[in-house]
Design goal:
- The chain has 76 residues and is mostly helical.
- It has one domain.
- 42% of the residues lie in helices and 0% in strands.
- It has three helices and no strands.
- It has helices spanning 28-35, 40-49, 62-75.
- The longest helix has 14 residues, at 62-75.
- The protein is globular and about 35 Å long.
- It binds iron/sulfur cluster (SF4).
- Iron/sulfur cluster binds next to helix 1 and helix 2.
């Protein structure tokens, strides 16, 4: 079942390819959409909790999410 925040996702109905860029440099379009998204935070938390490996979630690429996880571990 989809979490309820997905109903309000700014990326709903958009081409999913935008959110699965091959390189971080190509993620700008997705990040711009995420920046305006009302559910950015729950989306990011979902990706972190579920260890999503691919794609842009909550405005963060996989590499950026890994960095976030490391930062949180350090400050925990
Ligand atoms: S933050 Fe980005 S990936 Fe997440 S729901 Fe919003 S637009 Fe989609």
């Amino acid at each position: 079942m989809n979490p309820s925040w997905r109903q309000r996702a700014a990326c709903r109905g958009l081409d999913p390819d935008i959110f699965y860029p091959v390189t971080d440099e190509e993620a700008d379009e997705a990040k711009a959409i995420c920046a305006e998204c009302p559910v950015r935070q729950p989306c990011l938390e979902h990706a972190l909790a579920n260890r999503e490996h691919d794609g842009v979630w909550g405005g963060a690429t996989e590499r950026e999410r890994r960095r976030l996880v490391r930062q949180r571990r350090k400050s925990a």
